[in-house]
Amino acid sequence: MExxxxxxxxxxxxxxxxxxxxxxxxxxxxxxGLLAEAGIEVDGKRPWDIQxxxxxxxxxxxxxxxxxxxxxxxxxxxxxxxxxxxIARVLRARLDERVSGTAMLVQGLRAxxxxxxxxxxxxxxxxxxxxxxxxxxxxxxxxxxxxxxxYWKDASSLTQAQEAKLDLICRKxxxxxxxxxxxIGCGWGSLMKFAAExxxxxxxxxxxxxxxxxHGAARCAGLPVEFRLEDYREFGADGHQRFDRIASVGxxxxxxxxxxxxxxxxxxxxxxxxxxxxxxxIGKNLRRTPTDPWIDRYIFPNGxxxxxxxxxxxxxxxxxxxxxxxxxADYDRTLMAWHANFEATWPHFAASYGERFRRMWxxxxxxxxxxxxxxxxxxxxxxxxxxxxxxxxxxxx
Length: 397
Description:
Its EC number is 2.1.1.79. Helices cover 41% and strands 17% of the residues. By secondary structure, it is α/β, with parallel strands linked by helices.
C-alpha cells in the first residue's frame, strides 16, 4: 500500500463522568478500519481475510506501505488463503492511495533524479531475476518457456494460451518465409523458436541474461536463430543491421521513461521502411506512479512501467501507431497458472531456495495477479509502422 492516509487517527471513549473524549486509535484499529473498507477482516474466516501472526504487523504496514506489507509477508508475520483476492480488493478500494511509506517517496525521487535503467545498471535485472535458474523457470512456465502474458481468448490451459499469444504476434507481424525478425529482449527464445518453426523466418534475439542466452541457444539448435548477449543500445549502431520485422515482448518494462525515446530510435534504425514493429508491454494507468518499492527491491530491480501517453510521446515522428490491443485481464489468469505450477513443483526446489524465497515468490505471483484483476495495470500490444501501412493495417485476432 502506497500513499498517505489522511483520515482521522482517533476514536471516542466515555469518561467516568459520562463525557466523551478522544483517544488515539491503535495501529491495529487503524489497519483493521482501512481493510474493512475493502471488505477484508483481520483474522476473519473468508479466503481473502488476513490472518495476523505478529502483533507488530499493523505498525509495520502502516509505516512501510507496500514494502512493509510485502516484507512482513516474507517474514511470516501474516497469511491469507487467497492473497491474490486480498490484493485485488485493497486496490479496488484504493487503499494504496491512503497509506504510504518512506520507500515510496524515495523510489519516486530516485526515478526523477537518476536514470535507473542506464547501460551500466541494465544488466542488474538479468543477474538478479532472470538468472535465478533455468530449471526453476522450466518448472513454472509452459513448454515454450514464455515468461509473458498468455492470450486466453480461446485457450483452456497455460500451454494453449502461450501458443496462442506467440501465434497472435506472428500474425500481427504478418510474418512470411524468408523474413528476418529481430527480438529485443528475447528471453529463452520462445517467440524466435516458434516463428522459425511455424513461419519460416530467421531471427536474431537480444538478451541481458547469460543463463537465457545459453539455454535458449540449446533449445533452438538447428534453427536459423541467433542469440546475442547485448543491450539494445549497443546493437546496430553502425546502421547496417536491418530487419523486416521487430518484436519486443515483455522487455520494455525495463527500459525506463528516460530511455523510451532512445529505445524507439534503435528500433526505427533497425527496421525496414516497409516493416512492422510489435511492442508487447505491461503498462500503468498514471505516468506519475512510481515503481512499487517491494517489486523494485526483490523482483525486478530498476523496472519502470510505461503509461499509454509515454509510449505515444516516445514514438512521435518515428512510428505510426497502427494498432493498440489491451488484454491485461489475461495476465491475471497467466499468473495464477504460473503460481499453480510453482506450488506443485516447489518440493524440488525447497532445499535450494528456502522458505523465505518461497514466500517472496508466492507474494510476487499472487500480488501481481491481484493488480491485473483490479485493472490497475494493463497489458498492451502495439503494432507500429515507420511510414504507415498503405490502405490501413488489419489486426489479426
